[in-house]
Amino acid sequence: MTQIKIEIDKEKCIGCGACVALCPDYFAMEGDKAKVIKSDGDKTDCVQEAEASCPVAAIKTQKE
Q: Taking a C-beta distance cutoff of 8 angstroms, is the pair 61, 48 a contact?
């Protein structure tokens, strides 16, 4: 099983909510910015889709 580490660049985040809509087990909104609620895990499909969908490339993932 592939593990993935997730980070959001708060400076880049515009709070569009795409990551939350695509992968609510890992992302949530905190005020007007997204936050990671689970920083690692094995649901790589939705996390990678959220990363690819971020309009400002604020989500960074790293496979472990």
A: yes
- Three-state DSSP at 45 gives helix
Q: In Å, what is the CA distance from 39 to each residue of 14, 43, 53?
A: 20, 11, 18
Length of the chain: 64
Tens-place pLDDT, residues 20-64: 999 999 999 999 999 999 877 666 789 989 999 999 999 998 877
pTM for the predicted model, two decimal places: 0.86
Walk me through the domains of the chain, giving residue ranges and CATH numbers: 4-63 (3.30.70.20)
